[in-house]
Amino acid sequence: MFGTRKWENAFYKKITRRSLFETTENTVRTLTIKQIEEWVSNRLKTVFPHVSAPVVLPATGAQLYSLYFCISNPAPKAIGLATKAANFILKAR
Questions:
Q1: Which residue range is the domain that position 21 belongs to?
Q2: How far is Cα 31 from Cα 46, in angstroms, rounded to an integer?
């Protein structure tokens, strides 16, 4: 996932808890959804010249997905045109 295994250490930490009778080790997520989106955006930017801010899906209720619009053409005119088209499509939903 994400082309690397670094996300596991970025998203999760192992927590050791000791009680009177035993020691347990749990893995817990340490990042918020916004921090995960930022990490994914930075990862996508290593491949694509332009990555838009993620769109939260669904627009209401609990967030299930983050939709990213990535543009592979580095030309400023191509980025402008593709961004304009993506904004139009996303506003129509």
A1: 6-91
A2: 21
